[in-house]
Amino acid sequence: MSGRRSRQSTSSTSSRITDDQIIDLVSKLHQLLPEIRSTRRSNKINIEQASANKVLQETCNYIRNLHKEVDDLSDRLSQLLSSIDADSPEAAIIRSLI
Amino acid sequence: MKARMQNSSSSALLKQEFLKKWINGLQTYTNTKKEMTILDRKNAIKLSADIAIASTRNFSTNWSRAVMADVSKNVDGSSKIVTEKILGRKETCIIKCSKNIMRKSRLLAHRKRAIRRTIGRTSVKAASAIAKELVKKRTRVLKRLVPGGKQMNEICLIKETLDYIASLQVQVDVMRNIANAADQCLDSTERSLL
């Protein structure tokens, strides 16, 4: 019995830490992501978890988009950069950007 | 305002560092470029970009270490050459040693997960429980997206995600700028030929 009680207490403290971190994450992600629409619910417990869920969803979608962009840009560059050589006009432009 | 200005200058430095390392990696292909197909070229560009962006973190983050562990899994010798070019020989050897460390931590995480499953679950269908399930589900997806995420606890995962997203943005920005510059260069040379 005592084993179950101690297990419950550890799970509640770990979820409290995660909620704080998630609130922290919401404020930081606001700078990185497009606007996250906040859903208002009467139940207070659900607000944190609803926003956490929304944030995680936006984050996953955003990372997937970024992965796809890298892939598409690699495709585009493989066709454009016909010469990955030191003596090409493209390299001169790249050097001017550094 | 100051924080934002500092952010933009540090991200500019990051972009420069990524660009230099990326181009360094690409230069390893100068001798073989004539035999490369378009797909080979694309993989070379992507590989160099991934190694370059991971190394800008000096391997202080889990995701960057996981990226390098994945790269060194590749049997193809070219990835080793690119890594050496971008990082130097010493760092490449260190990364090979860290492969074993990652393998051990993966086994440890497996054992912990197996123990947790045997404890058993109680199904309570309250709104908060359903919301918790959703959060868990999304966390699982996020763990799959962030390299090395499967071995992290939730707090670590969130911190790594922030850093990973910032690095991905740098990577995408620089690659997009180069692609646009190459586009313009191509346009201008075409016009001069007319």
TrEMBL record, chain A:
Record keyword Transcription present: yes
Domain BHLH, residue spans: 6-66
Signal peptide: none
Compartments reported by the entry: Nucleus
Keywords from the named record: Growth regulation, Nucleus, Transcription, Transcription regulation
Pfam families: bHLH_ILI
PROSITE patterns: BHLH
PANTHER family: TRANSCRIPTION FACTOR PRE, TRANSCRIPTION FACTOR PRE5
Protein name in UniProt: BHLH domain-containing protein
Organism: Rehmannia glutinosa (Chinese foxglove)
From TrEMBL, chain B:
Domain of life of the source: Eukaryota
The IBH1-like N-terminal domain, residue ranges: 12-74
First-listed, main subcellular location of the protein, grouped into a coarse class: nucleus
CDD domains per UniProt: bHLH_AtIBH1_like
Compartments, as annotated in UniProt: Nucleus
InterPro entries (alphabetical): bHLH_AtIBH1-like, HLH_DNA-bd_sf, IBH1-like, IBH1_N
Coiled coil segments of this chain: none
SUPFAM superfamilies to which the protein is assigned, alphabetical: HLH, helix-loop-helix DNA-binding domain
Keywords attached to this entry: Nucleus, Transcription, Transcription regulation
Keyword Transcription: yes
Protein name (database record): IBH1-like N-terminal domain-containing protein
Species whose genome carries this gene: Rehmannia glutinosa
